Amino acid sequence: MVTCPHVYPTSRHRLCQWHIQQNAISHFGKLKGDRPFQNLFNKCLNSCYNEDEFEDTWRKMLKDYGLEGHSWFKRLYKHRVKWSNALNNEYFSAGILSSQRSESTNHAIGFQASKTTSVTAFFGIFETTLKIWRSEEEQKEFNGIRSTPTSVYPLTDLLLHASQVYTVELFRIFEREFTLAMGTRATILPVDDPLLVYRVEPAVSEEGPHHVTYDCSNQLIECTCRKLQVIGMFCSHIIRVFHMNSVGEIPSRYILCR
User: Fold this and answer.
1) By the number of CB atoms within 10 A of the CB, which of 63, 87, 190, 248 ranks highest?
2) How far apart are CA 201 and CA 237, in angstroms?
């Protein structure tokens, strides 16, 4: 995503995480084969949920592996707001963390074209490629309208509604989160507020708990993991709270336009 403050005032420039990971390997040195170190580095990239957790994890990584004076890690930290998910969870990105979309487009056309291809020939290749993409999209659209996705769970209430409003690909994402939700514990917290606040945590996992705030009268819901704001899809924590409150349909405000 490229910053353009006048046209896209809420946009944010992000660096491709795939390229960061590939570049990082050349700077790991002896730590290249150290799995715990790589887990800490990857957590800083995309698995921290807030800035405090990111800072704690980054300091631990530098201290445990003696990297406080490493120039490359200093330079990477300076630009942390451009690559760490924890510092970008207020911005919608549909879960895109790399530039793979443009690279896939380049590949789709590049395997037929070269530096010597004329503009006329390139336009013909590009037009043919677009026709193929649109044909495939129309076929998927037709299949989505004429059929209902299958599931290992009975398609009732919330899951049934998800199968009706989402494409097959998005339904699979929702189904995975639904599966994770069934393995969580939720406890309602006593708060002096008309809103309901739940503590949701996985039954067996190293992941910590998250807090879900639910306004049942207006069907507004928010989770501290921020997946809904960033990706536009419900996390397992929210689905768990919906299940506890017998919510049978996805609120319309959370069904994004395609």
Assistant:
1) 87
2) 8
pTM: 0.71
Determine contact, residues 162/174, Cβ cutoff 8 Å: yes
Rounded to 5 degrees, what are φ and ψ at 167? -70, 170
Taking the C-alpha atoms of residue 51 and residue 43, their distance in angstroms, rounded to an integer, is 12
pLDDT in tens, 22-59: 888 888 888 888 899 999 999 998 888 888 999 999 99
H-type alpha helices, the chain: 17-28, 35-46, 51-64, 71-78, 100-110, 119-146, 157-165, 168-181, 227-231, 236-244
Instruction: Return left, alpha or beta for 151; rule: phi > 0 is left, psi -120 to 50 is alpha, else beta.
Output: beta
Q: Quote the tokens at residue 156.
A: 């009732």
Sign of CA dihedral 166, 169, 172, 177: negative
- pLDDT tens digits along 154-212: 888 899 999 988 888 889 999 999 999 988 999 999 877 778 999 999 877 667 889 99
CA angle at 118 for the pair 115 and 120, rounded to the nearest 5°: 145
**pLDDT by residue (tens digit) across 126-141?**
888 889 889 988 888 8
Length of the chain: 258
